[in-house]
Amino acid sequence: MIEQLATLTDHFLIAMPALDDPFFARTVTYLCQHGPEGALGIIVNRPSELMLSDIMEQMNIDILEHDKLAAIPIYFGGPVQPERGFVLHEPRGRWDSTLAVSEHISLTTSRDILEAIGRGDGPQNILVALGYAGWGSGQLEREIAENSWLNAPAETSIIFRQPSSLRWKAAAELMGVDISLLTGQAGHC
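Structure (tokenized):
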């Protein structure tokens, strides 16, 4: 029987090197919710070819600073509902549909935050993703027991300031782990 972990909300899930699932290999997922019902997270190190300005134009949202928004990538947040947008941000303002994940990070799914960003008065630190990663009741706990994931308390600097190509290694370093030295062999009894 898999033991229920204490909540991993506001933690990183760091894919172990042996995890070869094409959706999750070498990913860092920020967990926005975790409890007995399951978990929801956003992959924070898989930029897509889309830019924020592309999404804003598709949604007919006015853009004040087009060049600035053209430089912000849209991330692959996970395989569930890949047509739905999610904005991870440092809390600022009031939006129609926001989950306060921690005192530092919120997750918003409503259009009004994108409109504010387009006007230049939205949150400064954002990560915009399409889709999310989801786990059913007990599924994440099983995967952790099977040595698929490491977990560590999240750091906003890794999400918002670290280049996406360095986030996997940086997240593991929060635990003092050099991820390149790990193997896929489990050591569970």
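The radius of gyration is 17 Å. The beta strands are 11-15, 28-35, 38-43, 47-51, 73-76, 80-89, 98-100, 106-108, 126-136, 149-153.
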